[in-house]
Specification:
mainly alpha
């Protein structure tokens, strides 16, 4: 019984365990199916997402490809249109060429007809020429019989008479041709230069190495000299200018080669005389103050000059050097006025030639800045000015124009010859620069002596500062027909042997006087 009960219990336990296992299996299977289902759903969603992404990329690539294809088709159509247009142009030119060939053929036929006609005319002319030769021989024989002269004698007389007449006609013809050549061959160049000169007219100040300071009374001279000369020594030491106090009434001479120093000395002396307090300490104070005022004025003059000429962007140091030109002179010509004049000339000439007038004006204004350095360089002023312009960042063509206006460096821009020519125009025109009196007198004497060396000249007079030469000839030595040749010969000799600014007019005068006396 106990065994049966044991067996029943065992079976019961075994069945319970089996049922538990079965229940757990069913639960695990259910969870597995759920997880598998979710994995399938997730895999399906991921597959759909991947498909959508691939489809979107495909659509984008397809759009880009279609766009590229459209652009290529557009380019192909443009190229095709261009080819069609070129083909039409070629066809049109071919038609025009055929038409011209046809016209040329017609013209050739006409020319052949004209040539045949000319050949016939030439034959007729040759026949006429032979007949004229026969008639000429007959006429010469008749003339020889009538005149009693041989052919050679008649030729000699005829040649002699024609030679004298030809000399007069040739001289008149040469003069006429020279005038015509001057009016036509150089017409354009003269127009540019004349317009340039006419459109620029400035006054030229003549500078020198002394300044005269006028005073109200000679009593002031003693106060300026001071006790044992201490005031005048202080003035000379502070300004660097020599003060000449002599017997000249109501005047003191300030002597020095630096115009800036002379101007500082003049203004300082004026302030000291006006104030009345003249002693060494006061002199140093006034000179220092005046020097500062002059420096400010120099900068102001440079700025005003640049503004007046419409030049912008100059370096402040270049502006100061331009203002400093006011107190410099070259051969008696004020340097600032000369530079302004050259700048305007360059602008006008550059405009006439189709170049940049502003750049030409800039080069013309700065072309002589090498003459106003703060130190004493050992370079020519043109080269030193070019170095200054390069230092302060001016354009290369402007720098080259500054350095080449005296041919000291090679010209590499079109501005350089314009600046060189305008510098010569401004410096060489009458009255622009002062000559040394000895050289001036020598030039006048050379002019008169050169004219006197010609045969038949009685008196010569150089007038208008050597711009005109009056030549008086003897009425019994030279006739009216020969004075034209004489004036030409004198002008040619002056041109070949002398150096002079501008031009010299030669006037030959011949007169016949008859004098009688009534008694």
């Amino acid at each position: 019984m106990s065994i049966i009960l044991f067996v029943v219990v065992a079976i019961t336990l075994i069945c319970g365990v089996g049922i538990g296992f079965l229940v757990n299996y069913m639960i695990i299977k259910s969870k597995g199916n759920s997880i598998l289902k979710s994995a399938r759903e997730e895999a399906e969603n991921l597959k759909k997402a991947q498909l959508l992404e691939v489809k979107e990329k495909y659509i984008n690539l397809k759009a880009e490809y279609e766009k590229e294809v459209a652009e290529r088709n557009k380019k192909f159509r443009q190229i095709e249109n261009q080819h069609n247009q070129k083909e039409q142009n070629i066809k049109q030119k071919y038609q025009e060429l055929n038409q011209k060939n046809q016209e040329l053929a017609n013209e050739t036929k006409k020319l052949d007809a004209v040539r045949d006609n000319l050949n016939n005319q030439i034959v007729l002319v040759e026949n006429k020429k032979k007949e004229l030769e026969k008639l000429k021989v007959q006429e010469v024989e008749k003339l020889s019989q009538i005149s009693g002269l041989s052919v050679e004698q008649a030729k000699a007389q005829l040649i002699e008479s024609i030679r004298d007449e030809a000399k007069t006609d040739a001289m008149a013809y040469v003069t006429e041709m020279m005038e015509e050549a001057k009016m036509t061959a150089t017409k354009e160049a003269k127009r540019i230069v004349i317009q340039t000169i006419q459109r620029v007219a400035t006054e030229t100040a003549i500078e020198n190495s002394i300044t005269v300071f006028h005073i109200d009374s000679d009593e002031i001279k003693g106060r300026i000299i001071g006790r044992e000369g201490r005031n005048i020594r202080a003035l000379e030491a502070a300004t660097g200018v020599e003060f000449i106090v002599d017997d000249t009434p109501e005047a003191i001479v300030l002597s020095g080669f630096d115009p800036v120093r002379r101007e500082v000395a003049r203004l300082s002396l004026h302030q000291l005389v006006t104030d009345g307090r003249i002693h060494p300490a006061r002199i140093e104070e006034v000179v220092a103050k005046t020097r500062k005022q002059i420096e400010e004025e120099i900068a102001e003059v440079g700025k005003r000059t640049a503004i007046d000429l419409g030049i912008h962007g100059l370096h402040p140091e270049l502006i100061r050097l331009v203002g400093k030109m006011k107190y410099r002179s070259s051969y008696g010509q004020n340097l600032l006025q000369h530079s302004r004049e050259v700048a305007n000339l360059c602008a006008v000439m550059a405009a006439e030639l189709g170049l940049n007038p502003q750049k030409a004006k800039r080069a013309g204004l700065l072309h002589d800045i090498g003459k106003v350095p703060d130190d004493q360089p050992e370079l020519p002023h043109a080269v030193f000015g070019m170095n200054l312009a390069e230092k302060y960042k001016e354009k290369p063509d402007v720098c080259n124009a500054i350095g080449a206006h005296h041919d000291e460096v090679e010209m590499t821009s079109l501005l350089a010859p314009i600046v060189q020519v305008c510098d010569a125009i401004s410096g060489a025109r009458p009255g622009a620069r002062r000559e040394i009196i000895e050289a001036y007198i020598k030039r006048l004497n050379d002019l008169e002596n050169l004219a006197m060396s010609h045969e038949g000249v009685v008196k010569t007079y150089a007038i208008q500062a050597g711009r005109e030469l009056r030549v008086i000839v003897g009425a019994d030595k030279i006739d009216d027909a020969a004075i034209g040749k004489l004036s030409y010969d004198i002008a040619k000799k002056i041109q070949d042997t002398m150096t002079y600014p501008g031009q010299v007019k030669i006037t030959v005068i011949r007169e016949t006087r008859s004098v009688s006396y009534a008694k």
